[in-house]
Design brief:
The chain has helices spanning 20-31, 64-68, 75-86, 94-108, 111-117, 152-169, 236-241, 266-272, 330-338, 351-357, 367-370, 374-382, 388-396, 406-415, 424-436, 446-454, 458-464, 538-556; strands at residues 10-16, 36-39, 57-59, 146-148, 173-176, 179-187, 190-199, 214-227, 255-256, 277-278, 283-291, 301-305, 311-314, 344-350, 359-360, 400-403, 479-491, 494-495, 502-504, 510-516. It is built from 18 helices and 20 strands. It is an alpha+beta fold. The longest helix has 19 residues, at 538-556.
């Protein structure tokens, strides 16, 4: 790590934050021959930011992987899905709309080839996330578009990290850990650098909360500053403060899907320099969160990436309405559950379902894909039994109940915190009624119809959707219940930017010298996703905004 006492006092491009968007921007500025300095408040172990922990999902349109699976996709269909999901309806959506159009073209044309040229490859089976379940113009993906990076999050970070590290060896990049920006320097109306605090050295492992002890200060002048500081998901107080009434009341209890450093601290700093923050009430939190039995950061939660078969019950045992099935509509489900008056809900399923359908989000929860281990992948995805990380939660997770009979399962659910509100009779009615619908190939139960439809897609049939069966069938057991929590994750609003990544002020004009990328910019324009996202679009937004702003900033200095 660069010695803070030897830090440069000037640089061409200064990047605040070393997550994926920041690394991509740095690589582009380097390729243009510029000197780059990267500052971050965390120890160097966290290089790569949240992207390192991700599942590595990327949204492509009409990819070779899709075509090989018989999926007919197009920009027109993707646009229909994106805009139907986003629900843009504000004056502030001018630039987000433009970013959405630009990103759809990027996802269709250049994105995959650009990544492949850097050695990034993809798992051949495309996932179908956010399936919607409404009409053709409603929210959701009409077709599978979730492409998993071979190597997951670390695999997508790797080429950009290599470029930065090569720049360090050549003396053209300086990376300053434990440097927290507190102010953007303004000279004659333009952003010309940053000032901030040097935090005490820390040996904390990746993701582990580090101290905030201040041991000094710093000042760096720059021709351009790019804010790449992420969102607010690690700051529950800020999440609650910005929680929109359309999603019901904010939960009293949540688990956290991002490290504590995702604190939103650069938002007021950027606003003080003239940047306009928009769409702060748009956010993306999951409803399938579970407490990590082996936590890294405070209140560490993991998201279940469920297949479509589990029965979803609210805290009282009432089944969720159509089309709020597992994997169909994240924010629709969140809004419904927030109006029940309880902070948790339940999955009820069989062991046959969990071994086929449960995947846990995160690079560390998918050692086969992250480690590019083909024998382990074949065993995990195609073999019998639950995957190792899922089995660990079955063995140790505080939110899992495993029993042989429905009465025993309900008693185990009621024994967990908050289980006292569960109506045993309601649970039995819902599960038994669902099972009666399995006697015929036809049904009035929309979830059963959808899961049968899902198995028409080869990818789902192979690795994501269990053969339809009665949950109470003893041969499919034992029975499993999972207590689910709200899991904080992404900000869908942020710094308003134009299509060059320049931060815009209240008057709509660019703030000279200031750019924003990634989640800090709402993944583009201050809210490219609108109210809801299509999945696989968060990392892609970091890539696209980082590339765009890195090139624009380099060209401007």
């Amino acid at each position: 790590m660069t010695d803070p006492n030897q830090q440069p006092r000037t640089t061409d491009v200064l990047i605040v934050g070393w997550g994926l968007a920041g690394l991509v921007a740095a690589g582009e500025a380097l390729a243009a021959g510029k000197r780059v300095t990267i500052v971050d408040q965390e120890p160097r172990t966290n290089l790569g930011g949240q992207a390192h922990w991700s599942f590595g999902g990327l949204f492509f349109v009409d990819s070779p992987e899709q075509r090989r699976l018989g999926i007919a996709d197009s920009v027109d269909l993707a646009r229909q899905d994106w805009f139907g999901t986003a629900g843009f309806d504000r004056d502030e959506d001018l630039w987000p709309r433009r970013w959405a159009e630009a990103y759809l073209q990027f996802a269709h044309e250049e994105k995959r080839a650009w990544l492949r040229g850097m050695g990034v490859s993809f798992f051949p089976i495309v996932g179908w996330a956010e399936r919607g379940g409404y009409t053709a113009t409603g929210p959701g993906n009409s077709v599978p578009r979730f492409h998993i990076t071979w190597g997951t999050g670390p695999g997508i970070v790797a080429p950009f990290q290599r470029a930065v590290e090569e720049g360090e060896r050549n003396g053209r990049v300086t990376v300053l850990a434990r440097h927290r920006v507190t102010e953007l320097t303004i000279t004659d109306g333009a952003v010309t650098g940053v000032t901030g605090e040097i935090l005490a050295p820390s040996g904390a492992a990746r993701g582990v909360a580090s101290s905030r002890e201040v041991v000094g200060d710093f000042k760096i002048a720059a021709s351009a500053v790019i804010v790449a500081s992420g969102g607010i998901g690690g700051n529950h107080d800020l999440v609650r403060a910005q929680w929109p009434s359309r999603l019901g009341t904010a939960p009293e209890s949540m688990v956290t899907g991002v490290p504590a450093y995702v604190d939103g601290s650069m938002q007021p700093v950027s606003a003080a320099a003239g940047a306009r923050l928009i769409n702060g009430d748009r956010m993306w939190h999951y409803v399938e969160g579970i407490q990590n039995w082996n936590p890294v950061w405070p209140q560490h939660g993991i998201r279940i990436l469920p297949g479509p078969s589990s029965v979803w019950l609210d805290a009282t045992g009432q089944r969720l309405p159509v089309p709020l099935f597992p994997g169909f509509d994240t924010l629709g489900t969140l809004a419904h559950l927030r109006r029940t008056g309880h902070d948790h809900s339940w999955f009820v399923l069989s062991h046959r379902i969990i071994e086929k359908e449960f995947t846990l989000s995160g690079s560390e929860q998918n050692p086969d894909l992250t480690g590019k281990d083909i024998p382990l992948l074949a065993k995990t995805r195609l073999g019998k039994g639950a995957a190792g990380p899922v089995q660990a939660f079955l063995d140790h997770g505080a939110d899992f109940v495993v029993r042989d009979s429905l009465d025993e399962l309900i008693a185990g659910m009621q024994a967990l915190p908050g289980g006292d509100v569960l109506d045993a009779g309601r649970v039995r009615t819902e599960v038994e009624a669902r099972d009666r619908e399995m006697a015929n190939d036809f049904t009035k139960d929309a979830q059963i119809a959808m899961l049968r439809s899902a198995r028409a897609f080869r990818g789902d049939r192979l690795v994501r959707t269990a053969a339809p069966h009665r949950i109470l069938d003893p041969k499919a057991g034992p029975l499993i219940a999972v207590k689910l929590h709200v899991l904080t994750r992404k900000s869908l609003g942020g710094i308003e930017t134009d299509l060059s990544g320049r931060a815009l002020g209240a008057d709509g004009a660019p703030v000279p010298g200031l750019y924003a990328v990634g989640e800090a910019a709402g993944f583009g324009g201050g809210g490219v996703h609108g109210y809801r996202a299509l999945e696989g679009t968060f990392l892609g937004g970091c890539l696209f905004t980082g590339r765009t702003a890195g090139r624009a900033a380099a060209a401007a200095v």
